[in-house]
Protein 1
Amino acid sequence: MAELSLLTVLGLAAADAVNPCELAVLTLALVAILTRYPRERIKVLKVGFAFTAGIFIMYFFYGLILINFFKFLTQMDIFKIWLYRVLGAVGIILGASNIKDFFKYGGAGFVTEVPKKWRPTMKGLIAKITSVKGAFVTGLLVSLFLTPCTMGPYIICCGIFEPLALLEIVPLLLLYNIVFVLPMIAITFIIYLGFTTISDVSGWREKNLRLLHLISGIILVVIGIALLAGLVI
């Protein structure tokens, strides 16, 4: 069962990691810094890592809050009994919403991404990045804008962690968030090393946007069904 739980954590983290939102915000951050310092490639590396570190730290903090919230709820018997069923249902709904965006992007009047009305503010923050310290602080702030499109799998995972002790939770939470930011680290590296350009990364994201939603959606639906069936505890 421990092995299955670890597989579930990795699956949820992977569903989060392929979410188009985080790839979009990192691309915006790197564009902002390259526009200011077109010849300083080392700046791309430092800014990319600082921006990613800001998001990583905030998401780890969010995780601790969510887990403690679930621990508080499960002190009441009714929540303890229904927690996994609710999490399973949430997983299926979120997964179906992502799969919907593969077949009909923006169908039903919404997309599982950063709300459109938030995007100008988020882009404005990112455009102001001028230093490594600024990128870190912006990463902390931008994590708030990412929550609507990336927090779903994280909420499910934190619910699964609820019965565990803090010493068991911390390494699993670190693992989840490392997997979550891996694409951001990878993109920063390959752009720094000159293997690709930001425009190519942005183009790849746009071309594969629906596929990324499909992959994320399938993972969430499978885990949601497993939770409802009692296969994940």
Protein 2
Amino acid sequence: MAERRELRAVRRWAWYICLPGFIVNFIFGWYPLALGIVVAFQDWPIIGPAKFVGLTHFYNLASDPLFYKTFVNTFYYTALSIGLTFFIPIIVSILLMEMEKRVIRIMMILWFIPMASMSGIIVWKWFYNPYYGLFNGILKILGLPLSQWLNSSRIAMLCLVLPALIMFGPGLIYIASLQSIPSDLYESAELEGASMWQKIWHITLPRLRPVIAMLLLLAIIGNMQVFDQPYVMTGGGPGYATTTVVIYFYNIAFNSLRFGKGAALAFVLFCVIMVLVIIQRKYFRENIDI
């Protein structure tokens, strides 16, 4: 009987400790989400009462060509970002583990160096400047034709993704995860005559799977909501070549003050991200088959 009372007391204190977190999550998480869904079905003026309009905002979005253009741009950015910046750090981290410990420590120190993403974005924007930027200066020295970089609708999106190759931070997480793999597994594989690639395929990658799954999920969510990088570097241009869904939402809700249509767009983006998350969780499980 005393043990049950003690257990109930422990659980009660656990709820007390978690309560502030639940309150903060409700105020800054679930409540804005619920309010945004409500606003999506209303005309929400700055002054005056809101008016229920049903699915009008969603019909307006469906007839807006820019709505589809921004989603295509966002998917394109997400595919480029994950394809170019997500898998390369995995490969680099695995290959680093085959090097001397001194090299590994140096790389971990470099990854530990704090790098402000916004300042890095601004620096890269100047690198891309077609008149006095670093990259065109290099091309001029090499005698190669100059490029318009961010002013070219053909390569502007690629230019937005490339800085992430350097500013991608989770490479440190991969190294930390690799160091937690028991060395006995590799020694046993070497005794069996396994090559380096066989060790990577059968030992390293299966044990990195939970970390890769988690970071892939975060990468999908983050890239689908990208705003700061294209907004600072291109403003969504040239034309609408780099206008993402969140930039479009910003223009609708805060530049044009059409909060209802902006909330409807945000709700559609939320549903799309949830579908992608469900697909990722279904087909890229975190369990390790050993």
Protein 3
Amino acid sequence: MEMNFQKERRTILICGAGIAGLASALFMSRAGFRVEIFEQAEKLDPIGSGLQLSPNAMHVLAELELEEQIKAVASAPSKIEIHNGLNGKKITQILLGDGIVDKYGQQYLVIHRADLQEILLGACLDEPDIQVRMGTAVQDAVSHANGITVIADGPNGTGNYRGIGLLAADGVNSIIRSECFDCTKSISTGTFALRALVKSQDMPTGLHLENILMWLAPNAHAVVYPVRNGTYHNIVLTVPDNFGEKSKEQIISGNKFTGANIAASLDKWDIGFTQLLDLNTRWTSWPLRGAPKLDKWSEGSIVLVGDAAHAMTPHAAQGAAMGLEDAAVLRWAISKRTSLPEAFRLYQSVRMPRAAAVSQLSGKNKKIYQLPQGLAIFRNMGMRYMGGEKIFNRQDWIYRWKPPIIEPN
């Protein structure tokens, strides 16, 4: 069922050119809409460094016919190795590889965030019905009888832009969410992520660098995996707000720093991980913020997608995947309803329960990963007893998801 809008009134406005915004633009364009994307950054610099693309995310990218481009720059680890952060001993491992393809129909990949964003942006720029306005910051949006007007500051001053609907994909600190949904700003999760990107040739020997490596310890855990087709490694250390006073000061200021002041707070960790802190690289720090809990994601012809709707901690490795899923479900909802408000409400009813469940699981994972030493002993014994397959199957319901089918007219 296609929507009955006059062609001159078929513009969808999208605030934010992140993963959710760009994917949504591609789906909207292919649904027959003209799309304008507003991005406050003058160019798309990578935020963070790496991310994991589980099968549910890859099904969306395949739907967008971007699967082969993704595989050309991503890495396909054969397993996840889970280690005790304090003594380095391997707790268990989770097999990936061909078994995941057989089970879910897609690979489990890891990729540099910038590479994924560049592929999505390139696909948008190739679409004649998508216009990307860089360096244009949305300040407000107003609903009226004829649709939506966005007020944005761009290179040529403040302008008004009109469309029939607005997708707010402007991240965890969404302007549209705060202006149009009368809610608080993002909320603290009590956690920071310390990240580094290292050339693989500079990584120490003795680690199985082709795999995803995890170290679990009280109050902190680390993840390392290859990106950019194995030429770099992404290192992420998740720590609480009260992590080392000097480190805390630099985290809050957003400065970049070396691993020297991190090591002092990890003095009891095994050298398997702490040797990475000696590498000559810069560390960046990012507070892990969450979206406030909302009763609704849509208001008339305005709808929230991606982190603007459901920013969550990364401990289920599903942040990007949820944004990609949002985009696919929006396209499906529009095919099922005859007005944007109805379609947005349908999207909301489908996506809110799933995003909430994934967010809840992510929170549980963090608690499990960072158990205090006494309880960690029983966690490690339990993980060894369960084995990797049963541990992986805790998220089976996430990975089995596929984009809803668009029925032909």
Protein 4
Amino acid sequence: MHGELATLGITVAASTVWEILQREGIDPAPERASTTWADFLRSQAEALLACDFIETVTLDGRRQYILAVIEHASRRVRVLGTTAHPTANWVVQAVRNLVMDLEDAGCRVRYLIRDRDGKFPAFMEEILAGAGIQTVLTGVRMPRMNAIMERWVQSCRRELLNRCLLWNERHLLYALREYERVYNQHRAHQALAQAAPLRPVPDPITDPERIASLTVRRRDRLGGILHEYSHAA
């Protein structure tokens, strides 16, 4: 601050600048220049992906591991797959498919946030690096560093996994694809001003006669676990 004033030809003592800053409760320059984790997430949202594994058990008694990613800016979710055996080869292939999908969608991602789960192989980072994506690891036992992904995991459990009887891996993947479609194309998100990741907010209805004569249809999915509401044609 003192240096900037000097470049403007304003003569003032450095101690005076310090006293003014202290009186206004402004931190010293080194601290103001630092970037918090929340600041990083907000400033880089357009370039951020986050991923995580979700565990669930199907009715055939097998533990299944679901791998999913979410775009921070759009909140679009991609379910990369589910397996009872998350081997290194399986994860690597899922990541390769993700990279190709991102390229086809024209999505410019620079960072991928993940935790330190041992199911993520080291070779995964090389594949991402080859696509220009840097891996950012969260702290140990610090799920809030991956809060947006963790929030989707919570929604997936509450709205799908805890409400649906899933027979086996094939049925689980089918249910996840249905939930992914509803989440991306229909479900309203408060963070997006009630838009969906792949659907903008429609123009408001201002005609009183149209509002009075609305005909809305509900479409049930997965036996009524998920609902979609739309205007009747």
